[in-house]
C-alpha cells in the first residue's frame, strides 16, 4: 500500500505517479529518456480504427499516466526547463495535496506484471478500483509472473478469480488466468 509519509526531502530517489495531460505520456517518456530519467508507461495492444480500417496497435494502457523514478528536485528542474505539461498526481493529507509516491517493491512488481507481452491483462482505473472486493493475498510461483504478489479475487467481466496487482489509488492490473498450482497463499 502507499505510504502516508510526506516526501519533504528533495534528494530522495523514488517513484512518482504523474500525469501528462492531452495524451502526451509518450512525448513525456521520450523527453525523460533524453534526460536519462527513469520512467515507465504501462502499455498494451488495442484495436484502433484509422482511415476506416481496424488495426492492432501498441499504445498506453491508461492515457495520461506515467511513473517517474527520480528525486523531486530533478523532476522540478525537468518540468521547469523541458516538460512543463508534466504534473504530479496528488492525494489529500492533512489539508494538503501531496504527490503520490509508489514504494519501489510495489512498482517493480507492477512493472514485471504489466510488461509481459502476449498475456491478456486488464487495466482498471481509479474509478474502477473502488469496486474491487478484498480477496486473499497471494504470490505467483513459476511462469512469466514468478514472484509477483497481489490479491486473488473475482473481477467483474472475468469467469474465474484472477490475481490483481494494485497500486492503491492509481491503477490496478488484472493478470491473465493463472493455474491454481502456481499460486501460494500469503498471511
- Termini separation (Å)? 15 Å
Number of separate structural domains = 2
Mean pLDDT equals 87
Structure annotation, total helices: 4
Question: Strand portion, in percent?
Answer: 35-45%
General description of the model:
- The protein has 187 residues and is an alpha+beta fold.
- It has 2 domains: 14-102; 105-185, no CATH class.
- The protein has 4 helices and 15 strands.
- It has helices at residues 25-34, 72-81, 104-114, 126-129; strands at residues 14-19, 38-40, 43-50, 53-60, 65-70, 87-88, 90-93, 96-99, 101-102, 122-124, 136-140, 149-153, 162-167, 171-174, 183-185.
- The strands form 4 sheets. It has a 6-stranded antiparallel beta sheet. Strands 1, 2, 5, 6 and 9 form a 5-stranded antiparallel beta sheet that branches. The chain has a two-stranded antiparallel ribbon with strand order 3-4.
